[in-house]
Amino acid sequence: MKLQFTQILVFLGITALIAFVTYLYCRGAREDEDSGKEYFLAGGGLKWYFVAGSITLTNLSTDQLVGMNGNQMALLAWWELAAVVGLMMLCFLFIPVYYKYNCTTTTELLERRYNNKHIRALISILFLLGNIFIFLPAILYGGSLFMQSMFGLDINLYVLAAIFAVVGSAYAIFGGLRAVAISDTFSGVLLLGLAITVTVLALKEIGFDFTDIPKERLTLIGSPESDIPFATLFTGMIFIQMFYWSTNQTITQRAMASPSVKEAQKGILAAAAIRLLVVPPIIVLPGIVAYKLYGDIGDATYGRIVGDLLPAFLSGAFAAAIAAAVLTTFNSILNASAALWVCDIHETYISKTPNVKRLSLWVSITMVILAFLMIPIFNNPEQSIINTVQQLYGMLSMPILAAFMVGLLFKNVNAYATIIAVIFGVAFYYWALNPLVDAPKFAAQGIKLHYIHLMAINLILMVAIALGLNRIVFKQSAVWDAHNVFGRNKAA
């Protein structure tokens, strides 16, 4: 499909409308004395529907729509189905704890539990590294690739990525979390509606006939050699979801910005319902249909099928929705990253009373430039975006989760025992399964170890090392404390 005037007009009109409505909702926001809370937690005033909308669209971006459809198989639906379990953990276990400890960032909880500011800073740095070098460049690459493949644009991918980066930064820098969450919600309604439309049209295009599609592309039972072996659903997949939905600042920040635990929980449950009922079909079925229509075309799949099946005015609207998804996910991560830097690093080690907006501006600009430089890593025709992201992030996600698990399940653990264990976990994962060159160290011994299994093994090792060091080196006995942390939460 070639770009038409109608598409441009619809695209610009919808994009401008979302920005204008977001401005109307945000212009009356109060600027109280606690500017950090207003900027990073929307003053604690997000209603449940904004929580649900922001959580949904922060996660649902081009790495899902483009990357998962790019695999062109049903198996990838497990990422979204398993996410429901992660959201339940956030809803009933973690959110009450964050409110109980009155946290602005998830890592603040670590400082409270370990009574140590350095472990909070270390985990924040790991979060920041993942955001800057993995998530942000993946989002920019996926959105730019979608626009190229949908419209057949003769524009350099990096030019498109630069446009996304500049516009997305504006929301996060000038509007804070309130603008991010509100734009997420309105954009999310548009994106989900059009994504469902694309899925239905794709199925009609093949007459709901899945014959001639290989069985391995339709099954939900992954073989040991597949992207998601079935056994991994009971090992690393559980921990990936726990990490992403319950400890990841980018996601939890939305739920922490509600006026009460109950309001936050309503939003999380609504997001879980969307994740269970709506998201799985839209991230796999168009890709499977595209395999029957075009063959194996990888990450260009989603843009191609949307461009071919939607009429001009709807494709322009869909481009606006995808652009909104890219922008809101991008600015969500920027806002969360700025919160981590300002609250966990700058206020702790540099200045206790910074100008939050000004500091966030320069932090965001720096992160955007670094993320832009990392885009070439994801321009890999041999592997889809989503697999690249998950494999890379395993180096950071399990060490972060290990720090939370030890800190929340036990008391009387020396923070430095966990710090050493976390550093070991980063190094061990890199050594065992170098995600940058895809060179498993176990292969030489004939051992086939999927990276999701490796993540579970690494997590267990880190917890054991932390508890072992705590007892042997620091002469402290860890005490089981989960009943005090997760029980009797009276936050309202």
Structural summary, described in words:
With 492 residues, this protein is mainly alpha-helical. It has a two-stranded antiparallel sheet with strand order 1-4. Helix 12 crosses helix 13. A hairpin with a 4-residue loop joins strand 2 and strand 3. The protein is 72% helix and 2% strand. It has one domain: Sodium/glucose cotransporter, CATH 1.20.1730.10.
SSE arrangement:
Blueprint: H1 5-26, H2 35-41, H3 48-59, H4 62-71, H5 77-100, H6 106-114, H7 117-151, H8 157-205, H9 236-246, H10 249-255, H11 261-277, H12 279-294, H13 301-309, H14 312-349, H15 356-373, H16 385-409, E1 410-411, H17 415-432, E2 433-434, E3 439-440, H18 451-472, E4 479-480, H19 482-486
Antiparallel strand pairs: 1-4, 2-3
